[in-house]
Queue: 2 jobs
Job 1
Amino acid sequence: MNRVRLSAFAAALLLAHPATDVAQTTVSDATSSHVINLMPLIDPTRDAVDGKWTMQNGKLVSELGGRSRLMIPYEPPEEYDYRIVLSRRQGNGYALQFLPHNEHAALWIMGTKDDTLYGFELIGGKGIYAANNPTAKHTTLGFASGRSFTSLVKVRKNGLTAFMDGKQITEWKTDFTDVSIGSYWELPNRQLLGIGCSRASFVFEKIEIVEVTGKGKPLRESASPSSEQPPPVAANTQPGAQKEAGKFARNQSSIKALYVIETRAGMRAGSAQDIIATVERGGSSRDKVCDFVADVAKDTRISMQEAERLLKLRYPTWEWGCKVRFSYANKYTKQAGGSAGGAFSVLLLSLLDGMQIDPGYAMTGDVTVDGKIREVGAVAEKIRGAVLENCRIIAVPDTNKEDLNDLAVLYSPAMFWSAQIFSVATLDEAAALARVDRATNLASAVSLFAEVQSRLGQNAGAAALRNTWVYQSLREILRLAPNHLSAEFMLRAANNQLAPTLSLRTSLDEIWTAATPLLAGLLSKDPDPKAHHRFALRKVPDDVIKTLSARLAGLQFRIHPKTRDLKLAITEYVSTINQLMHQPTTISRSTYEQFLAKKEKVLGEASNLGTDRKVLEEMMH
């Protein structure tokens, strides 16, 4: 009896105070006051991250292309319903919704794999194609029919639930620490809503949200032109064309440049570092139009000045009273090396042209005033460092192309699909790859390769590259983008065409880099005239010798066969030094002469390889 009375009382409360949480209803069930129409906020020219987007008769249209995505200037509350009405008008690809939740975000993917696969990604780092992604569901809804569908995703504190035309497709219970978005789909601001599509043209008729817990934050009132600085104008010039520049089209741009550091034991590690270019106004002098915020090495300054000369050929007139200042993310360390010349050039082009640079793009390569991207060293280490920094598009000079074989020998063939590696021969090619609005074929190649990456995962072997779909996809990628080195070298791996050892140049480089800490200044004559028959020894830390010996041993079966005698001579030289480290403070002339004999053997082997003896002697002293 008491239970009956309690139920009646609860029902009366529900009738008097309707629930504001719409977790149990669809957006269409909510009252119109709850629904926020996001369409008026969207300006395709400002909000497009990749691909071509237009507004046609109040509907948002994505053109057929690769990995198209658009960021909506609206930060949702903690809990919300995200609803879109869409139809596919061309292609056989899929659509998706970006689902931010506090500092995390996920993707809802609709109709991939020829309209048969739906689900969330990344779940525990697993994409929608992964066999153990628990949210991936196989179903056919009929995008090919061209009719409109309603997609609804409920984002709650405890998880995600997705519906198509009112039917629940999948859900995932989570606190959102295990969800993320792959770098190949990432938006510049992960806290904003977004939409996207791949290999298809979609029409988005409605884009709406219901705020369930808390209030969202629109970043603009409407898409109408504002009184603020006008949006950047995309470049539309032919390669090598000249044009007059009025005001700078952008006030600031950044790009990831690749570099290496070397330890005292000769170990090299690569990484990616942001270079930020900022336009500072208000000056009166045109001297030193480009400069650095902090002191840099001479070669770094020369590469920047060459980039400035190149861009002044294309844009002879720069805005009066402005200075472009370059700064590094690591602003407390003096920067050295000339391999950032290409990055400086792309940054200047972005400021002058208005080109938006993909935040996942990184590059290495020097530049000359003729617009060519020039060869640099340590490419394998730089690529590996970029992969560890989650860079998804990596550009290297075309003249460094064959260094990718060395990348596989030094690390693993899996490095080829850990990121998308391209070769670039000119500034125009580097810029075409860096920009978010890539050309259709290039964008399609990037999109298709991302699907190959998702299917392979990090632990796939060479046999997986011979899968029919993967192999044919790689060939299609190369057709779309002939400079896609990852696809080219994956096909080489699939066909067992990778060289088993390092190139001759890289073998020499690895050997010398490993041995350099012990090749200079170890022995000197004792200044005491009474001890002129004895020689002083500068101690080398045991850990340095141990590291070098291990590194040289690890190169034995990786280096080019022609360099093995040189490596053996250096190994014996290092072994002799190791023995001397445990001798008294000074050594005799006979022991010193034995040491010199080992040293001469190294020089002799190097000479046999046709290497410049003077250069080698300079490295040895």
Job 2
Amino acid sequence: MVKKRSSRGKPKPLKWKEMRNLREIAVLVERGQLEEAYDLLLTFVQRNPRAVEGWGFMLEVAFNLEDYFGVWYASRNLAQLEPNEPQHYYNLAMTTVSLAMPFSNYVYTKHYIDHWPDSPNIDDIRELHEAVIPICNALLDIDELSENNEIEYIAQYEAGQVLVSEGYFREGRDILQSVVKHLSQPEPALNNISLSYALEGDLKRALEISQQVLERDADNIHALCNSAQYLIRLGRDEEANFIFNRLRDTVPNSVDNVDLWEKMLETFAYIDEYETIIKLSEQAIEMYDELGVPDELRSDTLHFAATAHAHAGNVDKARELWGKALSANPSMTIARDNLTDSVLPLGQRNGAWYFPMYQWMPMKWAQQMAQVAEKGVKSSKEETFLREIKKLIKTLPELEVTFALMLKYGNRETREMILGIASVYPVPGLVEFALGKSGTDEHRRLALQFAAQHGQIESNKKVTVYIDGERTEIVTFGYQIHSDDKRIGISKKLADDYKRAIEAVYNAEIEAGEDAIAKALEKSPNHLVFMYFKSLIMAMTEADTTELEAYVNPMNEVHPDAFLARGMQVWKLIEDGELDNALEIIQEISQRSELHYLELDLLMALNINLADARDDESAVETWVEMWREIEQGMIPPFWAKILDI
């Protein structure tokens, strides 16, 4: 059992401001807000790395949170500051058992035995030391552990590896780099150094280190897998394929090494080669059974296998394997989320995903993206957001590849993030995603809209997409829809009249609509929107074409380039049977990137009316379905009445 730090030790004096910060953290601890206190302590010890008070306080909070890494990390730093304090080494010995650091455990227990043989805890430490010796012997395949000079360096390697895995990239990397030259087999340390760069977002440097490993050991599985992953994320697919070809014929050499199997599975997940993942996972589980690998070490393998089966179309098998993964590791969020997603209706499913968002987007990149988004929000201008994204991609070109991978393979939140970017920036892979099966119907509809908007696919053309799991023909839609009433001339003076008029017209309340429109036109004669509303009421009440023409023609004279005026001109042409002329104008006014929602509704109605006039029932159904999807199932009542839909 790990124990709290004793009261002994000589605290280094702190500045008054820092003491106040510690008191504020203490208040959080008293309130039971331990995680918030821990986060603040991390910042505190970074500012004050030689302050015993900070590390001691961090140790106590981590102990109460049952955070073994936090206890180890704080104790490790305290041992450096207070080398004569046995409690720190006791804590280090106990936590290294939980963190699977046998060589570190050997070093700490031996140090304790050598320095404090009369300690009350000595029997516990001796027992632990005797237990870890055969484990280290087996790992090193030697007879006399105490005579091996590498043990201290292997322990440091373990420390660097744990720090990297917990997100302390630079600190872990510094330790690993310091011991590489002392290890007879430095490849694992170099692989972790490579990984630390990748996790930080420096993929090119990560690849350089990985290739250095392969120069030393051309068959190193970890380095081959790392290199393949980095090359995919750098957009260098052809080079990556060369490595994948090698890996396809490779069975891991150390079949008792769970990490090795999972590294292979993880790597093939980068290209969603689900048949290979299924085959490898079956081999891995067979070996786990033979070697007696405990269930809790199998959860990642089961998750990769489940996701691969889902992509192969065997959802029942996938659910079974996710269930087993959760039985082995009940806190495995990604398995639980996948399982939950798999039982949703087809059109609402994201589809199975191998990785969480952070696998694709390093924290440093995510922070840079957050800054870009913040600037966009503050300016309230899409142009600013677009400009900032372009600037970031110019300095970090790997981001564009990452966007495409996240859209292709991401979970629901990941795809929503990328689609938010795609609303202003032409993310690669939008068309492929929109026409594929992955993602929700709504996500793929948005991708299709943005792809058309960016010119990646032709607007207003029929394409085949999946809706509720079935191949369905729809018309592409490439517009940004806005509701900025100022952009259609609604001033504060007319805001109330506009609200009354639009509510009446949209609800097909003719008398109330005519009254609101008349009052508005008294204030602002020839106002486009209210003239448009009046023409709609005329169409709704089935005014004859002569009467409608007498009103629509002057509206076009006053507003010759306005979408709403031109649209009503098309309506009259359709009613007159001049369908070719109507189509020509529809095609002309459709060449826009943005529409107010009033303009959107009019465009939908014109296409439906034209298709109906041509007796094209399929086109009518397509446009109606598309309109309902855009309006989330509800076509405005007055349009439904006019169009009889």
